């Protein structure tokens, strides 16, 4: 495993001779750039893990170096190293993007804190990289979900206990709404007749179903919905609970099953009619198989 690379940008030439051994003891490699090299440096190399910027009253202006090099390298932590008595300058460096600072000079024992400060900067860099990776994975997951959400032929919507938060185009087509803005904020009862098929109040029953889904994680049921123009239709509804940005929400999937319900009703009526005919017919009616049994 390669050692973390620390780039030290010198302002003057009076540095502790023990800086190299401290770097070795800390498990990283320190590369020193002289003031002349610092002044012509245009960009921090990509394989550098931490940059230490020195600032002295008689040398290269560390604040100018920080301003010039830190902004183009947001993923690399910068440490500001300056003389005792330069606390206000160090605070200014923090405001410009440095993650930490050290007050020391060639004779200062505080320079022994350099390895610990470097380790903290490396830990900060790892945490930021992990955060970026997590955020990238989350964005990728959200992009995949959005693709499925938008391309689904089923009406899919997101809602909480108060109403709808989002919907796909299939939802707008199913319920007859022109755009998301006019749909978002509606309650499921607003997309239903006042009463369900069995006579139950739609608002009360809808709230019960939402509470059940939040409590149990999911639920599936048949529902009488209503389009924006007032036409009612039978639907099958799936509710699934999940967390979105640390907020409990439901995904609702709605399918129009009116034709299925009408077909089932037609079969039921046909069976009832046939049963009535058989029961009231004066002629004997019986069935036989191919063997005439």
Question: What is the fold's blueprint, element by element?
Answer:
Blueprint: E1 5-9, H1 19-26, E2 29-33, H2 35-40, E3 50-55, H3 62-70, E4 78-82, H4 87-95, E5 100-103, H5 114-151, E6 155-159, E7 164-167, H6 169-175, H7 180-183, H8 202-216, E8 218-226, E9 232-244, E10 247-256, H9 258-280
Parallel strand pairs: 1-2, 1-3, 3-4, 4-5
Antiparallel strand pairs: 6-7, 6-10, 8-9, 9-10
Helix pairs in contact: 1-5
Features:
293 residues, alpha/beta, five-stranded parallel beta sheet, five-stranded antiparallel beta sheet, 9 helices, rod-shaped
Question: Explain this structure to me?
Answer:
Helix content is about 40%, strand content about 25%. It is α/β, with parallel strands linked by helices and about 290 residues long. It is rod-shaped, with a radius of gyration of 36 Å. It contains nine helices and ten strands. It has a five-stranded parallel beta sheet with strand order 2-1-3-4-5, sandwiched between helices. It has a five-stranded antiparallel beta sheet with strand order 7-6-10-9-8, with helices on both faces. The chain has helices spanning about 20-25, 35-40, 60-70, 85-95, 115-150, 170-175, 180-185, 200-215, 260-280, and strands at about 5-10, 30-35, 50-55, 80, 100-105, 155-160, 165, 220-225, 230-245, 245-255. The mean pLDDT is about 85. Strand 3, helix 3 (about 60-70) and strand 4 form a beta-alpha-beta unit. The longest helix has about 40 residues, at about 115-150.
